[in-house]
Amino acid sequence: MAKKLCGTKYPVSICFIVVNEFCERFSYYGMKAVLTLYFLTYLHWDKDLSTAVYHAFSSLCYFTPILGALIADSWLGKYKTIIYLSIVYVIGHVVKSVGAIPTVGSSDVHIALSMVGLILIAFGTGGIKPCVAAFGGDQFDEEHGRERQKFFSIFYMSINAGSLLSTVITPILRSDVQCFGGDCYALAFGVPAALMIVSLVVFTVGSGMYKMSPPQGNILLEVCNCIGFAIKNRWKRSKFDSQKKHWLDWAEEKYSKRLIQEIKMVLHVLVLYIPLPMFWALFDQQGSRWTLQSTRMNMAFGHYFTIEPDQMQMLNALLILLFVPIFDFIIYPLIGLCKFNVTPLRKMAVGMIFAALAFGAATLVEIDVVKSVVDPAPAGKCLLQVFNLAEGDVSLMIPGSHLFKEPIPNLQDPAQYETLPASGEDVQFQVTFNGKTSECNHTFLQREAYSLILYSDAAGIQCNVVSDYIKKHYNGKPLLRFLNTLSEEINTTVGEVSFHLLSDYSVSPNETVNRGEYPAVSCSSTSGKCSELNLGLLDFGASYTFILMEASGQIVAHRMEDVKANSVHIAWQIPQYVLLTIGEVMFSITGLEFSYSQAPANMKSVLQAGWLLTVAFGNVIVLIVAEGATLEQWKEFLLFAGLLLGVCIIFSVMANFYTYVDSDQLDKTHMEDDDDEDHVKKKSNDVKLNKRGKSTRF
């Protein structure tokens, strides 16, 4: 007899299952929260490839539950399946964490370890997904159905609690803890790995208290076999028998009428699932496209508090915990009082509309976000900005270009990028200063960005061309570099980043620093004229060039903003998260309840598998669009919103023709079918006995 929690009817074993689920969800969502930025900043993939791999991984996580269900129901049972696949899960996390250590092999090794780790994690998390909740339900006796329902509520809360905490904590581990000279992805993946180990240990500790059911045979496999037999039988015999009302009736020779009838019920629901992947195609972009959008936004709340771009994903889990009781106890009852007939399918259609509105809001935000982005030059062109450090105006003439018609003032601020031809060959341009003309040569490559530094010395005007980095950094941090005009070397440290500046108009590499005010940055020089520099506010997404020069006997930093700071605050993402979460509450939760109520008792796992497959195919849609569409981001958001609205119309038409099945009617049908089956079995046994009697007369 199972032990009970003190004063309750709950088995003690559910404590281990709930803690196991909390730790597993923490490990999964924590790893996934930083995954897109890991692809971008550590593996140095572009945003489209990063998005595609992210959704390929998500898709695999929702294809593998079918494999886990087959193993559990047909071979190992739920307990052993959870144990063995959790071990695979842990190994995947460890491999993924090792791949995030820069000192372990080359970049190819990091990619290989990362992909192997993700595949193992997908098999682990997907494989145990259909087993853990069902295993928890198995711990209750049939007479404790009320307690079982409360357990599932607690179980669902543990999932969201793990998701919420992990999406807050792991981005902090990634960005605030520096290791190996940069963001600490090894730690950000290592902590979820440790939580998965804790999950496995906790689940194993409770093994002596679990109520375990042996494998009962996989109904999903039986359903597939029945459908396959019906199709095969009809293909062979359709010319000779046209009296079947339904194509599944061709399986009656081998399978019971009850099974065939139940499959028909399930197929009616599965047909409604066909449009559903489009919702998940939008929903799962929170961790990819929406995270990329947040990296180009202002993430500061006041002077002292900022959030990381990958932390915004926690808003969904937080809003779910808030919205579920609001909808259950306020909104739905109020709608009922107004006597509106809001069916489950209508709720799901409205949920789709809210998700489409969320992407409409994301489109408006994206249009404003890109205003602070420097567009790369088109093919055959490059970008050029000019820093005039001479003590007067300078005229510049570039062959094949009509730019810079007016003289360029000294330290023109802001400097602006101009587009000019880039042939990949030496370009000879003329610079005129104080009536003297000098010639400079440089090779400009297409789609690159450059700064032309003009300065004067005893010999006249001099030119120096350096390459620029115009992309906003994917972690949202500001970029800066120094241009040293002095004849002495200078050392300075900005935050935790040190710069060693050579003399005579040398330019340091671009480095990322933390966003913040830098009114007194320490510096040192051989002359002692450099003690501290006032850099001011280094804001999110901006790229700065600080020109070090002497003024009034001191070395000062003249600030040039190459790329504008992020002007749109990240709070503008809140409406799209609110709309999407409302859509999730109305679509996802209602869809699960609808699937449960419309399925026969022994077919609920089949519909669960079908539901998970809609999530998998939704991620496949994003993968295809990310790699194939090559649209501007705001146009891609608008495309997804339009596609979902179109799918919503199709789904609404399909739902209008759907006839709901009452649960009492299902139970009555099952009882009648059971009686019919017993009658058929009795008749069949009588025939067998008669045949046996005729063949074995004594």
UniProtKB/TrEMBL annotation:
GO molecular function terms noted in the UniProt entry: symporter activity
Bilayer topology term: Multi-pass membrane protein
Keyword Protein transport among record annotations: yes
Pfam families named among the record's database cross-references: PTR2
Keyword Nucleotide-binding: no
Locations listed in the record: Membrane
Family stated for the protein in its record: Belongs to the major facilitator superfamily. Proton-dependent oligopeptide transporter (POT/PTR) (TC 2.A.17) family.
Identification of the protein by name: Solute carrier family 15 member 2
Organism: Champsocephalus esox
